[in-house]
Design brief:
This protein has a six-stranded antiparallel beta barrel. Strands 8-7-5-10 form a four-stranded antiparallel sheet, with no helix packed on it. The protein is elongated. A hairpin with a 2-residue loop joins strand 17 and strand 18. It has 369 residues and is of the alpha+beta class.
Length: 369
């Protein structure tokens, strides 16, 4: 038997060792494949893109319709109104009619029943004075008048007798003229006595102090038992049915103010209640210190809510436009370099040109300035 040697340096392969490592490798490979498959199954898959067209019920493809839902804040109702240019002003309220009642005669107050804040009517009795002295003066003047009438009757009789004697030439013309002059003097005395009696009666009438107009008592100056003298204040009365708002306006803004313009103002304490008036007069001269001019605004006050001395703050409407539909400023949009607005017509949004609309720089519900 002939033996042949292998070439030197050739590796020797052992079959027994190859079978030992092949089984673990195959097992590890299988585990890795299973793990990869599980990870892929658990990984979130991206959603497919929506198709550009939606299928109609009939099966034919149509363009997709965009649907928008609008809230109440996205839609504004179109209202009609006018635009105004207002000039701010402020001032104090003063009663148009007010008076301080003074005593015309002297006397002691015997009765004064009205108090501050009470409403009175024209001719109502406010106070009474002691009438004893005035009644005595009336009686005195009445006696003087009676005496003057008696002298007049005597002068008339003497004149008649002198005229008869003059016709018979028993007396001279000068004597007759003297008796005629006595009649004229007696008549003058009667007239004087009548005037004095009338003054005494007026003084007696003035002991009853009455209200010269309807209004509210604002001040009571005397009490019962006090003595008053002529021209002494007794009561102060104001008429609140019409007030005057005296507002200061800068001289530079006076050309914009005209008689008859509308004025709107508010007063502290009345919440959101707004009062109105009209410009009645404009003072022709400016104040020395503030260089402003007084504007007098007539304010009707039928419910007597406003009182004299209250501070008011508001504005006068100097310019007013014709009534027109109103749009909020936020409703304007630009399309092809033109202003448009979007309107809801039959459930669809369409664009329209805002012709004939007045645009307000406000948000929310449109309103007139």
């Amino acid at each position: 038997m002939k033996l042949e040697n292998l070439p030197p340096g050739a590796p020797t392969i052992k079959t027994t060792s190859k079978k030992r490592w092949r089984a673990p490798v195959i097992a590890l490979t299988a585990v890795a494949i299973c793990a990869a498959g599980g990870w892929y199954a658990m990984k979130p898959q991206p959603k497919p893109a929506a198709p550009a067209t939606a299928q109609a019920p009939g099966g034919k493809g149509e363009p997709k319709i965009e649907v928008y839902e609008l809230s109440q804040r996205d839609v504004a109702a179109i209202g009609s109104g006018e635009l105004r240019v207002n000039l701010p002003l402020s001032g104090s309220l003063i009663p148009l009619s007010q008076a301080t009642i003074k005593s015309k005669v002297s006397g002691v107050v015997t009765g004064a029943t009205v108090q501050e804040g009470m409403s009175v009517s024209a001719g109502q009795v406010l106070a009474r004075l002691d009438q004893a002295d005035q009644r005595a003066r009336v009686a005195q003047q009445q006696a003087t008048l009676d005496e003057a009438n008696a002298r007049l009757e005597m002068a008339i009789k003497n004149n008649a007798n002198s005229q008869a004697l003059l016709k018979q030439s028993y007396i001279s013309q000068n004597s007759h003229d003297s008796t005629a002059n006595a009649v004229a003097l007696a008549r003058a005395s009667v007239k004087s006595a009548q005037a004095q009696l009338e003054l005494a009666r007026n003084a007696l009438h003035d002991t009853v102090i009455v209200a010269p107009m309807s209004g509210v008592i604002s001040k009571r100056h005397v009490q019962a038992g006090e003595k008053v003298s002529p021209d002494m204040p007794v009561f102060s009365i104001v008429d609140l049915r019409e007030l005057t708002l005296e507002a200061q306006v800068p001289a530079s803004d006076i050309p914009r103010v005209k008689v008859g313009q509308d004025v709107s103002f508010k007063v502290d304490g009345y919440g959101g209640r707004a009062f109105s008036g009209k410009v009645a007069r404009i003072n022709p001269t400016a104040e020395a210190g503030s260089r402003s001019m007084l504007v007098y605004i007539s304010v009707a006050n039928p419910d007597a809510a406003l009182r004299g001395g209250m501070f008011a703050k508001g504005s006068v409407t100097t310019t007013r436009s014709a009534p027109a539909p109103l749009l909020p400023m936020a409703a304007l949009r630009k399309e092809n370099n033109a202003d448009v607005v979007y309107a809801v017509v039959d459930g669809k949004v369409v664009s329209r040109t805002p012709r004939g609309f007045a645009v307000l720089r406000v948000t929310g519900t449109p309103r007139a300035l």
